[in-house]
Amino acid sequence: MAASTASRLSPPRLHAAPNHPLRRSRFSPLRAAKLEAVLSIGTHVIPHPRKVETGGEDAFFVGGDGGGVFAIADGVSGWAEKNVNPALFSRELMANSSTFIKDEEVSQDPQILLMKAHAATSSIGSATVIVAMLEKTGTLKIASVGDCGLKVIRKGQVMFSTCPQEHYFDCPYQLSSEAIGQTSQDALVCTVNLMEGDMIVSGSDGFFDNIFDQEILAVINGSPGTDEAAKALAELARKHSVDVTFDSPYSMEARSRGFDVPWWKKLLGAKLVGGKMDDITVIVAQVKTVVIPDDEGSGIELEKVGGEQLAAAGVASAEQSE
Amino acid sequence: MAASTASRLSPPRLHAAPNHPLRRSRFSPLRAAKLEAVLSIGTHVIPHPRKVETGGEDAFFVGGDGGGVFAIADGVSGWAEKNVNPALFSRELMANSSTFIKDEEVSQDPQILLMKAHAATSSIGSATVIVAMLEKTGTLKIASVGDCGLKVIRKGQVMFSTCPQEHYFDCPYQLSSEAIGQTSQDALVCTVNLMEGDMIVSGSDGFFDNIFDQEILAVINGSPGTDEAAKALAELARKHSVDVTFDSPYSMEARSRGFDVPWWKKLLGAKLVGGKMDDITVIVAQVKTVVIPDDEGSGIELEKVGGEQLAAAGVASAEQSE
């Protein structure tokens, strides 16, 4: 029996306690000319359990352009039914992205980067994709097609999150070799102003389908750096993905869309639960500031920051990372 | 007994069917000089059931500047315990916002608008607040402090959503007359590129705490215009807010934070459910394009579009709306 009162749920909302640590530092965009925002980036990829030998179909790249840039592409696995390797498209898309990011026209616009990288990709297949570029002023620019995701964590809470785009359950928007797919014009394009210390957590749907926000926050809070955080997050998602009793974000979403176990299992009291086995890519980036000497007019120092790699350009797939 | 397999949950993700209606019109920002984005805005406010006579503590304003602008402020009710009318701060904040939006410096930057409006507000109290400004190119600029919300709906799905900021459950970030509150510097500041036909649904927490995304989508889909949609959404949220058996977003969040019914009720099988009685403000805006004659260099026509009011400037609270 469900019982409660609405008033039980409506305590007066309290004024913030005087000693709450609310103040934080913030970029003064280009006013304090010596401070520039950069990303300290950690990455980790774990292929689908049945795709370990081929490395899976996710791919990503990380670059040092601007304040830092990264992208993730998730090859759509349905292509395997047509005897097409679904990894080819996502890997070429990321390789092309890492080339075009050097182009001045696209280095400031993730949607143009997607357009150019997509146009240059000749492999057959399709992929969901997300690109994030940090400007030195602290503005993060995002373009996303499909169900890769990105969240920003500030002061221990998720303060920004992208939403997946899909045609229907489990059929995301995707850049494709075929004219029937989406284009960069279909991307969600947005920006968010970041602050020093903000953490970015981005991943393929194989990550976000298998982990809850509260788990992400706990792992981020308990990790010494972005490399460790990315690895710990990917491993927690993998653990959930093969757990047939875990009530994952994916199984909750499936039930909310009307999917269910067969009727005879339902009669026995079963419900649709379980993780979702998939390639898992995680990128964790922390926003830091670097001091640029007055006499340096352009460029940022590419250096080790806090033990993590700062945006050394490169393309990777699970083959290389795992 | 929970039973399923992960593979049951992992169908291959399908390629989009060839006849899927994916293409849509899109703004060509300033390339097609005659097309400008504007908002067709509908609003509806329903005060807390015990605050109908005073009009509640939400306030909002709608203006025609740029492609359209709106803001919502939710006065923090805890001030009533200190014999301060919580509505004064939110109403003055919105009145000041509607004044400063005319200022060229702030008309392009919602965070500067918040800063100036906050600095000019002399009432005692505090409020959560969200401001959204549409540029004529289709870029929506958002600044939010606390737990007012904004979602963008495109092609029948939520493709963008703000996240609430809070100190702890039911204590949101808030602009305040006191130094211990937050400032505009604490705002979530983001932009999202909109397309013709996109729907924006914004509201105070009293709205989003009492309605699910799927319900919002259904109401938007079934409404002939933004006025009707805003009214229907507010009324559905009000219905849920006084329903002690409704398992609302608010009660689900409360349980996830460890809140529960008293132990003796729990022994009887009860669980914490119910809507949340609160002031409910809803703003629904649809992105439309207007054709500007070649010889008009600036400004957009303020006119009736599709039966709804297009951004006639004004400030309102529940006193005036209900």
Automatic annotation (TrEMBL), chains A, B:
Keywords: Hydrolase, Magnesium, Manganese, Metal-binding, Protein phosphatase
InterPro entries, sorted: PPM-type-like_dom_sf, PPM-type_phosphatase-like_dom, PPTC7
SUPFAM superfamilies: PP2C-like (SSF81606)
SMART domains for this protein: PP2C_SIG, PP2Cc
PPM-type phosphatase domain segment(s): 43-287
Cofactor: Mn(2+); Mg(2+)
GO molecular function, one term: protein serine/threonine phosphatase activity
Enzyme class of the recorded protein, top EC level: hydrolase
Enzyme Commission number(s) from the entry: 3.1.3.16
Transmembrane segments: none
Recorded catalytic activity of this chain's protein: O-phospho-L-threonyl-[protein] + H2O = L-threonyl-[protein] + phosphate; O-phospho-L-seryl-[protein] + H2O = L-seryl-[protein] + phosphate
Keyword Ribonucleoprotein: no
Region Disordered, annotated ranges: 1-25
Family the entry assigns: Belongs to the PP2C family.
Record's protein name: Protein phosphatase
Lineage of the organism: Eukaryota, Viridiplantae, Streptophyta, Embryophyta, Tracheophyta
